[in-house]
Write a structure and sequence with these properties.
By secondary structure, this protein is of the alpha+beta class. It has one helix and 13 strands, in the order H-E-E-E-E-E-E-E-E-E-E-E-E-E.
């Protein structure tokens, strides 16, 4: 009987011990959870948290180079003969995969210019701020011209550039410096040049000096 009674009396005591242990476990767990901090992403302090954006070639669009022989047929010369002048010019590719624009300027019959031009896609200029070209000239001053229409009566937008006799140079020409002209006269009320609407690019010599000229072109691109 004592054994049974002792066993019966021990059961409440065991329950109390179990309850105390359970409380201690729960309390310890809660304290541990309260004191713990959420994990944070690891940061390598040896690396900068921000980096500067380096310039890339993504905004450089090649308008033309002359590695493809078919490129020659994309260009056409326009001289002062359309107005009764006598200037002559030709445009051809070289064995070095460049283009050669050569000719003779005549001032007879109020003439005095020669040009070469090519159709282009306005999307090539959509994000451009400058036109860059690599040329070898003869010391004369040429014009780079852009048009937003292929019509002969459309306004041209021009900027001038100097060359060095027999020396290759790379030129960057700001699009916001191009001025509107028509038959040599500045058009004050012309609309602003919209690069994304450019349909034609060309080079013109019209410095009112007679004689031979030679301009070699390696490539032209929009940036």
């Amino acid at each position: 009987m004592r054994t049974v009674a002792g066993s019966a009396m021990a059961q409440p005591f065991r329950r109390k011990i179990a309850a105390i242990l359970l409380c201690l476990i729960v309390t310890t767990g809660c304290t541990s959870a309260a004191n713990s901090k959420p994990s944070m992403p690891k940061v390598d302090s040896s690396q900068p948290t921000t980096t500067a954006t380096e310039p890339t070639g993504e905004n450089k669009v090649l308008i033309t180079d002359f590695n493809n022989p078919a490129e020659s047929s994309q260009w056409r010369t326009v001289n002062d003969t359309v107005m009764g002048g006598n200037s002559q010019s030709e445009f051809r590719l070289t064995p070095e995969s460049t283009a050669l624009f050569t000719g003779t300027i005549s001032l007879e019959n109020n003439g005095g210019f020669s040009s070469v031009r090519r159709r282009t896609d306005g999307s090539d200029f959509a994000n451009a701020q400058v036109v860059t070209l690599r040329v070898k000239g003869d010391g004369l001053r040429y014009q780079l011209r852009l048009k937003m229409s292929e019509s002969d009566r459309a306004v041209s937008y021009r900027t001038e550039f100097d060359t060095r006799d027999g020396e290759w140079i790379t030129l960057s020409l700001d699009l916001d410096k191009f001025e509107p002209v028509f038959r040599g006269r500045i058009i004050e009320d012309a609309p602003a040049l919209v690069p994304a609407e450019v349909q034609e690019i060309g080079i013109l010599l019209g410095d009112k000096q007679s004689g031979e000229f030679e301009l070699e072109i390696d490539w032209i691109r929009a940036e």
